Amino acid sequence: QVQFVESGGGSVQPGDSLRLSCAASGLFLQYYAIAWFRQAPGKEREGVSCISASDGSTYYADSVKGRFAISKDNAQNTVFLQMNSLKPEDTAVYYCAADIMRRSCPPMGLTTTSPLYNEFRYWGQGTQVTVSS
Question: Count of CB atoms within 10 A of residue 65's CB?
């Protein structure tokens, strides 16, 4: 049984940093493109960042480019999301998921209305990130 577990969220002030973790069991992350998504209250879930399995390339939504960094540790079977210079608009529940259709990443910023969203599976319970002063 495949299971993803997200952790590392919390309540922070604007400008602070957090590091999220996505630990997988039942599936080797190194063989899949893995993405972080987030969903704020009343908004669609959107793709934030992705790391490809083919060559480790990383991709970001415009809203987080330059502030977030995705990485993975194949030995730990874990993907990380380093979030710096956090803003109130980053407040959301953050999820990780695997693209079961490809080893490369689709464009980030995609939402649930995109057909590409349906490629992602194995959603965890998410981890809450709250940024406020």
Answer: 12
Q: 14: which residues sit within 8 A by CB, 6+ positions away?
A: 86, 87, 88, 131, 132, 133
Residues 6+ apart with CB under 8 A from 128: 9, 10, 92, 93, 94
CA distances from 130 to 12, 37, 60, 89 (A): 6, 15, 20, 9
Tell me how far the alpha carbon of residue 127 is from its chain's centroid: 10
CA gap 39, 31 in Å, rounded: 26
Please report, rounded to a whole number, the percentage of residues in the chain having pLDDT higher than 70: 100
102 has a pLDDT exceeding 90: no
